[in-house]
Amino acid sequence: MTIPEDIPAINHRIESLVGTHLAAPAGTHIPQSCSPIYRTVQDQGIISNEGGKRLRARLLLTIYDAIQGDRSNDRSNVMDLACAVEVFQTAALVHDDIIDNSDLRRGRPSAHVALAAALGQLTGHSDDDALPSAVGHITHIGAGLGIMLGDLLSTASIGIVNETVSKLEHSEGILQAFLRMHREVEIGQVLDLAVERVPLDEPGRLAEASLAVFRWKTASYTTVAPLTLGMLAAGIQPCIGSDSPSHAGEGTDMAEAIGSRLGTAFQLADDLLDVIGEPERIGKPTGGDIREGKRTVLLADALTMADRTDREYLAKVFAAETRDGNDVERITRIFDESGAIDKSRRRISQLWSDVRGSIELTAQALRMSDDSRDSVVRCCSLFIPQTLR
Amino acid sequence: MTIPEDIPAINHRIESLVGTHLAAPAGTHIPQSCSPIYRTVQDQGIISNEGGKRLRARLLLTIYDAIQGDRSNDRSNVMDLACAVEVFQTAALVHDDIIDNSDLRRGRPSAHVALAAALGQLTGHSDDDALPSAVGHITHIGAGLGIMLGDLLSTASIGIVNETVSKLEHSEGILQAFLRMHREVEIGQVLDLAVERVPLDEPGRLAEASLAVFRWKTASYTTVAPLTLGMLAAGIQPCIGSDSPSHAGEGTDMAEAIGSRLGTAFQLADDLLDVIGEPERIGKPTGGDIREGKRTVLLADALTMADRTDREYLAKVFAAETRDGNDVERITRIFDESGAIDKSRRRISQLWSDVRGSIELTAQALRMSDDSRDSVVRCCSLFIPQTLR
What we know:
The structure is a homodimer of 389-residue chains.
Chain A: H1 6-22, H2 35-48, H3 55-68, H4 75-99, E1 104-105, E2 108-109, H5 111-123, H6 132-165, H7 174-195, H8 203-233, E3 239-240, E4 252-253, H9 254-276, H10 279-282, H11 288-292, H12 297-305, H13 308-319, H14 325-337, H15 340-365, H16 370-381
Antiparallel strand pairs in A: 1-2, 3-4
Helix pairs in contact in A: 1-2, 1-4, 1-6, 2-5, 2-6, 3-4, 3-8, 3-16, 4-6, 4-7, 4-8, 5-6, 6-7, 7-8, 8-9, 8-12, 9-15, 12-13, 12-15, 15-16
Family (chains A, B): Belongs to the FPP/GGPP synthase family.
Protein name (chains A, B): Polyprenyl synthetase family protein
InterPro entries (chains A, B): Isoprenoid_synthase_dom_sf (IPR008949), Polyprenyl_synt (IPR000092), Polyprenyl_synt_CS (IPR033749)
């Protein structure tokens, strides 16, 4: 488990790295009349990186520490690697909020909304202006600057890794794994848009597709990549049990075995809490996914398990443009009474049990101490609320 | 100068590399119900990469060949590096077209427009549908898929370079230079949006800012990076005249000296041809930038050099939402009669003369043969129409 000082250290280091990697390179010149707007984008880059729980960075550091123990002279470099994963997450979220038209992120205005507001102030327009065309224009510029901020943060995350690999004791495969994570998340975002188009009259396919997409869009960077990168930095190839490097693909990928299940359980829990969570604990009102008409595993299970009247209602109400408060209430009740919520609970606790098993096998294969193994279990447990494990 | 076979070879190699780098990685699984949409995005990735003149790839290969001569066993790897620059350009254009609301690119629907249309077909909606909300939805999904395609292509371009550096004879600094190019272009796109907000009553600042932004948004990946990467792949550090590596920044950067001027001249010529070009040669009607109200160096110069009546007219008409055909005609006449067009011509021919001088110095410093030097001059000349050199 990461030490308590790690979270402030991660936050501090992220701010410093983002500042460096979003700055104009040495020897270049930004014209004075453009610098207020570029400064606004840089500042938003720092702000958008604030406020996360740093679960991904902590998982990377925890698996590294569990393998490497106290023998490490390399931990500050591994810290940078952990920060790079967090910066990549921010890049992905900035683009995701534009794609999903989300105005809020971590309780604050999302990046493109904040950029539109800041630009309105800089240029004397605002959303309060009477001219709708000016407002639409500013909104569009906000999205434009948000796209570029996401691109800058994505490049920054790779730049951080590229600078770090030259300093790491074990660097083989790290940049490649980091780029693979980028690719998987980007494919996952496309698949997530595709899932929204799976017909509701085939709930079995919807459940299968949703669960598969969790591996791409969530587990990839939340759990699989942090575990893979932490292992590689500790000099361990995540694949074991293969006889030769050329057969590496045939072995068991330890990071995949733990990470794909943990990441899937994490996303299932996130979707479940959106329906049954306490608003003050999850930091937003429940039912948000239902209002948005999101195709979740819960919905797919309810479409399979509910009685005919409820199934027909669900199909109709999720095909509509919007759902009101009464709909949210009735849908939540159907999710509960059909057994879909219980099924999600069972899915999550089965996955968590599998994760425990995979950690045990990994700990044996890597000859971890019991303390080290327990620290990995504790860190992984942070991804799933206690009541759902 | 690149050999005639290079262009088909570049096209062929780009298609193959994009196909590989946009595919699901080995051992992963895309759920069947999502695969038609992902396939559409992959196909669009190939299509968006078609049709360029490959000037950037050819410049990279030309400077490499000029330094390396016939001694190269490495040319197929350098070819991949050249392709990576082209793939990055496509990534940037896909995002740029979303930001600029551009429906066309290289005479075809731009990526996000094509993706919206393809998705409409897949899911049975289309722009012809009567429901405006469905159309707006599809358009927004098109932008969402376009953002992700740009991200995928950007990651692919870095992935290509990362695979190539391990095979190159001289790889030092190459990935770093490629990531710097990414960062410079991304900053340049932000600055380009900022230039649109420079007040028209300060045309001197507008001209200065526009010219500075050309270095960021155009020269960076069009000329400076291809020259830098080609030199590095040939084992040459672009900085000469410094005594020690720690003073590298103090020497003359040959790629910068040639590239920043050539790229600036290229962009000035592009803006000038938009006003005075023959529509059939530039592949689009003239006056497009004027209709869009783009802040160009031509406009800044005209605002400085025209008489008071014309200046006031320009300030008023460029502050308006739209400009019609009569405006385009009058503005074009003012650009001409104020001497702004002549000034752009003089700027371009001065820059071209400086480029020639910098090539000469570089050829001497690197002890190039006259043939090699001439091939560099010929390749650089492709960036500026003959009538403007």
